[in-house]
Amino acid sequence: MEALLNIRKFCNLNSSNIKTAVLYKNHFRPASTTNSVSENLIATADEDYEATQLKKEIEFEQKRNKSRLRSHHRNLVHGKIPYSEPVADIHLTHKYNRMLFGKYGKSSNVNPGTLWPTKSELQEMVEYEKIAHPFSFSELVAKQKKVVDEEEMSVKQRQEKILKNLQKLEGWKREIAARVEKKLADLAKAKAKKDALIEEVKRHFGYKIDPKDEKFKEMLVIKEREQKKRLKEERSKAKQERYLADVLKKDSK
């Protein structure tokens, strides 16, 4: 009866008083059956205590994580392995393990002996190299040398062309200056003709008239036509005179 009372007291204890319960059990020496039940209860209490502590630690870590990042993202930020255990099919591949070992080294917990490519992978690599890089090293060197020689030749030809153009620069400057001078002379000549024509129209009326007047404009058009006709006749006459001069020159020979 006394042993049963002791067990009942033990069951009413909180999980935080496990050590006290253990001392209480050791103080009383019940029968063998009672000892077995007590040990089971103590083991269960220990498990509950550990689970409670683990839960508290998880909650504490979550409160410490002010960034609100997920665990694998937080590991990446701190330079750690994102996942301690595989969580996807890709995490079981050689490619992923090679990446882990190449980035984290021994801390990745990957056996480097398992990362060597298989025979089929080596064969695929050889076939890829044949297709992607079909030329040998000597062929690549010769090809690159040809490209360099062509570029040097192009630069040389361009430099020679620039030197030739520099030699012609002064002549081009003189030609441009002559064209500009001729253009200005033609403009001045045209302006002088226009002014002379306007003066002729003014003399025709015999009094001062506004150039914007309609009568003035009509007479100006008439005078321009007469001037063009006169110039045309003069050119035709000069052409005939040159022709006659050439004929007389041939006859004299």
UniProtKB/TrEMBL annotation:
InterPro entries: Ribosomal_mL64, Ribosomal_mL64_sf. The keyword Membrane does not apply. Residues 180-241 form a coiled coil. It holds the Pfam family CR6_interact. Its main location: mitochondrion. It is found in: Mitochondrion; Nucleus. GO terms for cellular component: mitochondrion; nucleus; ribonucleoprotein complex; ribosome. Keywords: Cell cycle, Coiled coil, Mitochondrion, Nucleus, Ribonucleoprotein, Ribosomal protein. Acts as a negative regulator of G1 to S cell cycle phase progression by inhibiting cyclin-dependent kinases. Inhibitory effects are additive with GADD45 proteins but also occur in the absence of GADD45 proteins. Acts as a repressor of the orphan nuclear receptor NR4A1 by inhibiting AB domain-mediated transcriptional activity. May be involved in the hormone-mediated regulation of NR4A1 transcriptional activity. May play a role in mitochondrial protein synthesis. Belongs to the mitochondrion-specific ribosomal protein mL64 family. This is Large ribosomal subunit protein mL64. It comes from Nezara viridula (Southern green stink bug).
